[in-house]
Amino acid sequence: MKLRAVPFTQVSLEDDFWQPRQETNRRVSIPQSLDMLEQAGNLRNFELAAQGAREGYSGPVFMDSDLYKALEAVACSLATYPDPELDRRADAVIAQIASAQRPDGYLNTWYQINAPDRCWTNLRDDHELYCAGHLFEAAVAHYQATGKRSLLEVAMRFADCIDRVFGDAPGKRMGYCGHPEIELALVKLGRAVEEPRYLRLARFFVENRGRRFFAEEHGTPPDQYDGTYWQDDVPITEHNEVKGHAVRAIYLMSGVVDVAELSEDGAKLLSMADRVWHNTCEKRMYVTGGIGPSAHNEGFTVDYDLPNLTAYQETCASVAMILWNHRLNLLRGESRYADLMERALYNGFLAGVSLDGERYFYVNPLESEGGHHRRTWYSCACCPPNVTRTLASLGGYLYAQTDEDLYVNLYAQGTLQTALAGADVTARTQTRYPWEGDVRITFSLDRPVEFGLYLRVPDWCEGASLRLNDNANPVTAPQESGYLVLRRTWSDGDTVALSLPMPVLQIEAHPQVQADRGRLALQRGPLIYCLEACDHSVPITEIVIPRGASLTPRKTDLMGGIVVLQGQGGHAPAADWEGRLYRAAQPLPSVPVTAIPYYAWDNREPGAMRVWIPF
User: Fold this and answer.
1) For range 54-70, the mean pLDDT
2) How far is 189 from 62, CA to CA, in rounded Å?
3) Under a CB-based contact definition with an 8 Å cutoff, are residues 128 and 166 in contact?
4) Mean pLDDT, rounded, for 495-505
5) Confidence of residue 1 (pLDDT cuts 50, 70, 90)
């Protein structure tokens, strides 16, 4: 990797946008998740497995993974917000998990209870390796956050078990998971404990993807097999487009980026990942940064198929987009990946949880007739703990660095502590982002030190400017790969002031996106906006916003202090066309319009919503 992420353990958020969400996550969402997992039987499954029970399992086959994601959320939260009660609950859950692990290291409660003699017989459907991956991620986060090895030891024993089974060495077998995730998790675990076997195993799973193994596993004749849903249709380096199940596809691509530097075919893997990235972001991604238009496969169809009312756009898929683009940014040091990470984070992802932290979207349409609402929990509960772990670990996405350079990828008020050029560096950021585009960074240093400061200029921004140490005149700084770069010797107390103009933008879609023809979306800063019924006196389906219409940002007390966009639109009520094919065009009466951030919809009175508005 060209860059390395500054860990979430070294970043604290102190703003009025993300810090309250992390606090709600800690106080409300994470404890509620643990309670719901207990009610759903996730914890009981581990108790039964520890007892050697052969009946009584609750839930779908992947239940273990949801508990592991919840534990990861707890761990990341503990790193920045110590909480003795959460710490105690985590230790108790980890003890239950450890008690269920078999002596050989195997750990999967569905198989241990229901079919202990059939482990690894249905890799396509039964999520054993997927669940293991989430265990590995939780274990690394718990170890980094607390220093405790209790869950890490469980993870290493299971990783050793898997490594004894799978691989290309004599006595090992072919296979990979129907739901990718273990690939990136093995790299994370291998780096954390400096175990090269785990890295080699991740490489094995990635490089063999697409051997059409699932046809063999299920006795499907080759001429009748379509492995697209599982990304098992062609060899891994031959993909040209994103396909199949959205979360599986992008988790796989994340693992590909991680493995590429470990692989002899690393260049081919990255070339493939580039092709898929361009296809995803240029032809198959929503304006919110979310992906996956189709409910029937929870994934992709064809280029430019981006319906709004029936958009699937699973919350977990937005998490996957954050993970993938974060890795590409670290690999390439290019701001375009951080731009997409930010787009998915503030819009497709953040809409997935209510402002009170109690309810979640699994599906995130860009238009609603009024019947789509968040729910407290789901029988397939992948999204809620994915939300909580992402919010808790958010600090780890803000900054990246080399030994002598600091990259600022996401702007949020808070404090960073790291080492640059052999010196301890503390950076204090002050900003009201995403509502305002002014960012001030103050450095505290134990001695003067030279390093490069890379400040991302978002793709929606023109006219960014810099000032140094409150000088009246802006600093001329070169722009490299989407970053303004200041390389100098920094002293204690030095400040940088970055100004990012935030005009209201009217966004139009590619002409081939049929659902958005004749429509515009609204964006200010990183936020996509929408119309919600409760703000309007006429049905929002009858509102038109002409091209070039003036919309003014206004700070409000609504929903934690959001900035709304207000102006005048046109009212185009349904007309009586009985007996007519044509008529003279009618002038549209003016109507007040208020747009709110997309992430904030469905937090007030139920009603219709739309992102794309006729012009």
Assistant:
1) 98
2) 21
3) no
4) 98
5) low
Q: Which residues contact 556 (CB under 8 A, 6 or more apart)?
A: 562, 563, 564
Q: What's this model's pTM, rounded to 2 decimal places?
A: 0.97
What would you measure as the largest C-alpha separation in the chain, in angstroms? 83
Let me know: does 142 contact 148? Beta carbons within 8 Å.
Answer: yes
Portion of the chain with pLDDT greater than 90, in percent: 98
Say how far apart CA 182 and CA 165 lie, in whole Å: 15
Tell me how far apart the alpha carbons of residues 72 and 331 are, in angstroms, rounded to a whole number.
24
Residues 403-413: b if buried by 16+ CB within 10 A, e if exposed: eebbbbbbbbb
Burial 377-398 (b: 16+ CB within 10 A, else e): beeebbbbbbbbbbbbbbbbbb
Domain 401-499 falls under CATH 1.10.3130? no
- The CATH label, of 1.10.3470, 1.50.10, 3.10.450, 3.30.450, for the domain at 4-397 is 1.50.10
Q: Do 4-397 and 401-499 show the same overall fold?
A: no
Cβ distance 256 to 206 under 8 Å? yes
Other CB atoms within 10 A of residue 590 CB: 11
pLDDT in tens, 309-322: 999 999 999 999 99
Q: What is the pLDDT of residue 109?
A: 98
Task: Give yes or no: 298 in active site.
Answer: yes
Give bridge partners of residue 590 from the DSSP assignment: 570
* Amino acid, single-letter form, for residue 271: S
How is residue 277 annotated by DSSP?
H
**Residue 382 designated active-site:** yes
Map out the domains of the chain as residue ranges.
4-397, 401-499, 504-614
User: What single string gives the DSSP state of each residue in 403-462?
Assistant: SSEEEE-S--SEEEEEEETTEEEEEEEEE-TTT--EEEEEEEESS-EEEEEEEE--TT--
The one catalytic residue in 72, 207, 298, 532 is 298
Catalytic residue among 131, 161, 382, 530: 382
What angle separates helix 196-207 from helix 150-165, to the nearest 10 degrees? Answer: 50
Any residues with CB less than 8 A from the CB of 126 and at least 6 apart, and which? 61, 110, 111, 178
| CA 204 to mean position of chain CA atoms | 25
- Distance, in Å, from the CA atom of 22 to the CA atom of 15, rounded to the nearest integer, reads 10
Query: Which tens digits make up the pLDDT trace of 428-446?
Result: 999 999 999 999 999 999 9
Q: Give yes or no for residue 352 having a pLDDT over 80.
A: yes
**Residue 155: pLDDT band with limits 50, 70, 90:** very high
